[in-house]
Amino acid sequence: MEHRDYLYLLGAMPDASPLLLRRLLALYGSPEAIFRQESLPVSPVRQAAIAEVKKAASEILKKRDEAEAAGIRWVSFEEESYPDRLRPLGDAPLGLFVKGKMPPEGKPSVGIVGARSCTPYGKMMAERFGGELGEKGLSVISGMARGIDGHAQEAALKRGGASFGVLGCGADVCYPAHHRRLYEALGEQGGILSEYPPGTPPLPHHFPLRNRLIAALSDVLLVIEAREKSGSLITVDLALEQGKDVLALPGRVGDALSAGCLGLIRQGAGVLTCCGDVYELLGMEAGGGEGTDPERREKLSPELKQIWRHMGTDPVHIEDLLAAEGDLSMGELSLRLLELERRGYIRQTAGGGYLKL
Amino acid sequence: MYSQANCMALFGMEGVLIHVECDTSNGLPEISLVGYLGAEVREARDRVRTAMRNTGFMLPPRRITVNLAPADIRKEGTSFDLAIAVAMLCSAELVDLKDYLDNTVFIGELGLDGRLMPVSGVLTMVGAAKAAGYGRCVVPAGNGAEGALVEGIEVISLESLDQLPLLAAGKLKPLPCRIRELLQEEALREGVDFSEVNGQRAIRRVAEVAAAGRHNMLMIGSPGSGKTMAARRIPTILPRLSLEEALEVSRIYSICGLLSQERPLILARPFRSPHHTVSSFALVGGGRVPRPGEISLADHGVLFLDELPEFQKTALEALRQPLEDREVSIARVQGSFRFPADVMLVAAMNPCRCGYFPDRNRCRCSEGEVSNYLRRISRPLLDRMDLMVEAPPLGYGELTRQGKNESSEEIRLRVEAARSRQAARFQDTPILFNARMNAQQVRCYCLLNKEQDLFLKQVFEQKGLSARAYHRILKVARTIADLRDAPEISLEDLAEAVGYRAPAEKFWR
Known about the structure:
heterodimer; A: alpha/beta; Rossmann fold; Arc Repressor Mutant, subunit A; 3 domains; nine-stranded mixed beta sheet; 16 helices; B: alpha/beta; Ribosomal Protein S5, domain 2; five-stranded parallel beta sheet; 18 strands; about 40% helix; about 15% strand
């Protein structure tokens, strides 16, 4: 066995704290030395776990080789391609499993996190920021969870950007399962990262830990929507500990899904209103203005403008439109809505509402 | 002495003539009842004997044999009691009904005191007696009004066994046939009206379109958004029942014993709302001796399924064939039973388990949970829903608004006009409504011009509609044009029809 194999055995040990492993490494100098020790200054449980690993070493290494054959590499902190952004982290993992690429070092990265069950507004904003920032060349870092995470990453990939998903399970496990298409696309256009060996199931206690990696890999962290007590806020705390900038998207007062973001703003987080806010923090040129309403509205005929007027960031139901535009029949209204939708001014949401784009 | 009386057995929606033969001969005193009898028919022996004694007919102590012919049909039900009693009395020469026996069908169950109890299915049985060439029916007094709905046959109502001598003497007069009179009567006020529905313009509109073209519809909305309220009012905007329809509906209700004794003709469109725990047999009909299910009870009316995803899967899937064929056919050893099931299906459901999606302040269901909930409705069932509408929750302002809403009467006039347009269009075909058009008829009656064709093509690409949606959209557009009283489908009609299909394509890809 080589040095790297010993390091792998140590790094891929289930539920071992990276902090502890690093301390042991500092104490004994090398992973080989650690494995040679009869007894270590650790708890008996941990001692037993190391003994277990020693016994099953060839098995574990065989599994690693299989995973590497399937395209999941293991990159240790001693290697060049280990992300520099993780190095300052006290409890950075000894190694990372990666399917696809690592986030490029030279390019700025932005983390986008938020609620799993988001509102249409949150979805729209996640897609807008994920898409535009991805297109601009920023690496979009997130957790591939459903809701905000997934929407932001999907949009980034759709517009040709690069996105990286940090998972709380093995890099070969697609969780949630219905994100299979996103998972495949991330593997091709970006990367899937995980500190857990292939095959590890998504256990609840993995997720707060993987959040520290999301925070560490991001230069700026955007919070799109979060409830008052939300997992996203863990990521924010970790990012602040690591000295990262956090921008929160303001929502309406009283909306359950805006409470978390508004709380962050009260505590001093930056306000996210446009991509320029992100560029400014990163010291980038904004370039390429975002479309503004008045310009676009000019192009609409009076009939369409009459309907467009009612649209906003909250879904407007056809029922409300019928009430507001009493003279219009269902048919006339449907035709205008379809036309607006076709021209990309509005979008139909779940529940029969329409949303301004 | 030998004698014979006639009665009727019910097989599904058919009445089958049964001859009751009775012979009194020397031997040990005994009554024996034969002829492939169900348990309740075998018990008739004790009922009949006791009823006779209690009305003063003393049977002679001789051997009495009763046979229900043809002996290869299993007899079920209690409607044979009267005929058995008559045959026995004539055979024992206690009553002289000679002039009656050949031309009369006797229907009724006996109580121990000799009273005649009402039975179910009298309307069908009297109709079958007339078809079999009989000139007279004797029915229990409780079923008199029901029997008298049949024209061209004398119907005499009998209260008790002790009236038999009066009958023999010709002192009981046949009941007058009241069907014309009943038809003139205004349908019983349902007590509900569409004017009570505030707001929900979309649901009102969809209900109108659905009623006009006899389309099935599905409402998706939060609790309290008025789905059930609207559904209950749909029968009030459907055209009145015709005589044939009223008789068919009344026959089904008669078989189930659900007819009112005073008002035996059903004039209002049925509205059936089975609970979601209903079994598939109760829904489409079944049982050892098949009986009509809820879908047949809703014949020519509305079958309303509230909380659609909560229904048992087997129950919902059982609906598919009757919805297509508009009748239920149930096969049994004795033969195949058919019940009419020409219904308009109206279904309602919540958008998710908690009911408040997409209001994220109240609903915490994940998108996966939401789509799992919706996917409990199978695609084939969904494909039978032409119209779908998503209803938003009602605001306080709408709930308490005092303004005047359109009444059912006004809506019904438009629906009737649209129906008569359809009747004119389909006069040479067996169908009556737009919803029933087949692919070829859609091509023939739903012509699109170039602009509309292009529009529909764009919409299909934009919304990713399925090929199945195409015909449904055209049919609904045809109905909307009929409601406008327009010969041609317009772009607006198409757009509106597309809107009614959109939820399906969004949720159930």
